[in-house]
Specification:
9 helices; Quinone Oxidoreductase, Chain A, domain 1; alpha/beta; NAD(P)-bd_dom_sf; GroES-like_sf; 2 domains; Rossmann fold
Length: 339
């Protein structure tokens, strides 16, 4: 048996009786070193039924991907670093003790199992979990595994920037300085973008955006960011109704809008503004495997310093409290779970 934190009735609870998973062919058993708490985990804890319903409503979504019983314990945790313990039968992999991370997907005999939320596939909020050998990425020697655990959210930011078509001379406006907005700022800085503006109501998060590479930060309470800056590319990392329409109204002619914020409510936009200004809108999700590896390399080489993002660290018995604490944007950005 092993320890883990699981979602039960909308709350994270501690368990010490979770069966230790057994690796199959092509899999490895790993010891979790650190796992970041993601905003999507918080959202699922509060709105799991809504998330599952929206996922199931998408045409072409395999039923297995959304087969989650909300009345049973749910495993989560997809921003992790780990250490190899043992390999499954007939499986060649890195030696035991090798620090690794991975795209949060488990390749199993029954198919692909996302490591996001599941009643059966254990995630990073546990002492041990299974990973797939073909997807393992070794953590460069000497890199703090706590920092390596932030590879996943940094890859989300890199993917958004890659999709934007931005060039160094373009002005970028990042709306929202939560973890994904901050990851976008960091990726823009590594791209060499010469004018990065970040906007957020939280003073602490504006300071964090500056520390991560923003050249200018704005408080929307003082007026629309578009009154101060004329961006070529706008990154929406807020995910609440009304933001996209406001960008279409205020952005300059020919601007590009990259939507990285996940809005779960119905939203209304006026296409006229986008049409009249010929605004290009790009929705983005997750990342490509190469972007995941590139993000880990950027962290390892010091081109992205993720240390300022880590504002707390808890054990498995305090994950529930950490979920509550993350509701205060002035207090926390990223809390790590270290089993």
């Amino acid at each position: 048996m092993m320890r883990a934190a699981v979602l039960r009735d909308g709350r994270m609870v501690y368990r010490d009786d979770v069966p230790e998973p057994t690796p199959g062919q092509g899999q490895v058993l790993v010891e979790v070193l650190a796992c970041g708490i993601c905003g999507s985990d918080l959202h699922f804890a509060a709105h799991g039924e809504q998330v599952l319903a929206a996922t199931q409503a998408m045409a072409g979504t395999p039923a297995a991907e959304t087969a989650v019983d909300l009345d049973a314990d749910i495993f989560m945790g997809h921003e992790f670093s780990a250490r190899v313990l043992a390999a499954g039968p007939d499986t060649d992999t890195f030696p035991a003790g090798t620090p690794v991370t991975s795209i949060p997907v488990l390749l199993a005999a029954k198919g692909i199992e996302p490591i996001v939320y599941s009643n059966t596939t254990v995630g990073g909020y546990a002492e041990k979990m299974l990973l797939s050998t073909p997807l393992l990425v070794p953590i460069p020697n000497g890199l703090d595994p706590r920092h390596a655990a932030l590879t996943e959210p940094m890859a989300v930011g890199l993917h958004a920037v890659n999709k934007s078509g931005i060039t160094p001379g373009d002005t970028a406006l990042v709306l929202g300085c939560g973890p994904i907005g901050i990851a976008i700022v960091a990726a823009l800085r590594t791209y060499g973008v010469e004018h990065i503006v970040a906007a957020d109501y939280s003073h602490a998060r504006r300071d964090l955006a500056t520390a991560m590479g923003a050249h200018q930060s704005l408080d929307p309470a003082d007026g629309s960011p578009f009154d101060t800056v004329t961006p070529k590319v706008v990154f929406e990392a807020i995910g609440v109704p009304g933001i996209i329409d406001d960008v279409l109204r205020r952005a300059p002619v020919g601007a590009r809008l990259v939507v990285a914020g996940v809005c779960m409510q119905p939203d209304t936009v006026h296409p006229f503004f986008g049409v009249a200004k010929e605004i290009n809108v790009q929705f983005v999700l997750a990342y490509e495997p190469a972007e995941f590896a590139a993000s880990l390399q950027a962290i390892a080489e010091g081109r992205i310093d993720v240390a300022p993002l880590i504002t707390g660290e808890v054990g498995l018995d305090a994950v529930g409290t950490a979920f509550d604490d993350l509701a205060d944007p002035d207090r926390h950005c990223k809390i790590l779970v270290t089993p």
